[in-house]
Amino acid sequence: MILTRRSTLVLIGALAPAAAFAAYPERTVKLVVALPPGGPADTAARVFAPYFADYLGQNVVVENRTGASSVVGTESVVRAAPDGYTLLFGSSSSFAVNPAVMKHLRFDVQKELRLIGLISYTPHVLVVRSTLPVYTLAELIALAKAQPGKLTYGSSGAGGAIHLGSELFKREAGIDILHIPFRGGGAALVSLLSGDVDIFINDASTTMESVRAGRLRALGMTWPTRSPLLPEVPTLAELGLPRVISSSWCGLAAPTGTPDAVIERIGAAMRQVFASADYQARLQKLGLEQFTLDPAQSAAFIKAEFDRWAAVAKSANIQVD
């Protein structure tokens, strides 16, 4: 094959991007968490980051970019250069809840972000204040039906995952309970502990210590299987409500257009992190559980989440502008 000067330059130009990305990463990689410090997404990111850095062979920093129920941070990654140096360490809010309840998002998560994989999750647990005179889910439902509109449940904010999960429980149980939104899960938990609200469906990772100490009473896990965090607590499926499924989960995504070679490098490092016994032990200590889904299963999981929350938002008339 004879190459002219022009064809040689064209070939070099075509190969240059691939050659550049073959050296990825050459500088610090940023993980954007679109939620405040201290929550499950932030905690999971800060556990994941140092192991990810080791296997990438480059520095990794976590940046919290909060606002508008994770919209601000998510959009910052959507608009970032598709080069693998700005990644979204996104939550269920970014990937499934916001698209289900927000009708005027300025971006399309499914089209403008490329999912690399799901990372970890914490199932939700239904708890009640310790002074509420119920000890089983059946007793709670019976009390709610006897006093429609009297019992209250807290959430981390209108239109969030906790609000939707609670409305799903309310619908499936056939009860009327009053929603009390708070500015974050921490405030809702404090209110429950002080007896200002009656019910809370919340992250097991941040609730289990209060349950173990007897300050709250756990009635059921909103997850298909029992959790090692609270193994004595039955699932709502065991108690007759198999469609009440909710959790807080995290996944890693890059802007659409990120080269395949970069995605493959990131995916390989993720798999190495997941295989680390030390990483797994740290997750367990913090009340987080590792996903074991392949890319196709991860995509199917997110679609099922979106479909579930879109249906709940429609039936409960939940919409966030």
Account of the protein in words:
- Residues 1-16 have low confidence and may be disordered.
- This protein is of the alpha/beta class and 321 residues long.
- Strands 1, 2, 3, 4, 5, 6, 7, 8, 9 and 10 form a 10-stranded mixed β-sheet that branches.
- It folds into 2 domains: 28-122 and 247-315, Bordetella uptake gene, domain 1 (D-Maltodextrin-Binding Protein, domain 2, 3-Layer(aba) Sandwich); 123-221, D-Maltodextrin-Binding Protein, domain 2 (3-Layer(aba) Sandwich).
- Helices cover 45% and strands 20% of the residues.
Helix and strand arrangement:
Elements: H1 5-22, E1 29-33, H2 40-56, E2 60-64, H3 71-78, E3 86-91, H4 92-101, H5 109-112, E4 113-129, H6 137-146, E5 152-155, H7 161-173, E6 178-181, H8 185-193, E7 199-203, H9 204-212, E8 216-221, E9 247-255, H10 260-274, H11 277-285, E10 289-290, H12 295-315
Parallel strand pairs: 1-2, 1-3, 5-6, 5-7
Antiparallel strand pairs: 3-9, 4-7, 4-8, 4-9, 4-10
Helix pairs in contact: 2-10, 4-12
Which descriptors apply to this entry?
321 residues, D-Maltodextrin-Binding Protein, domain 2, alpha/beta, 10 strands, globular, 12 helices, disordered N terminus
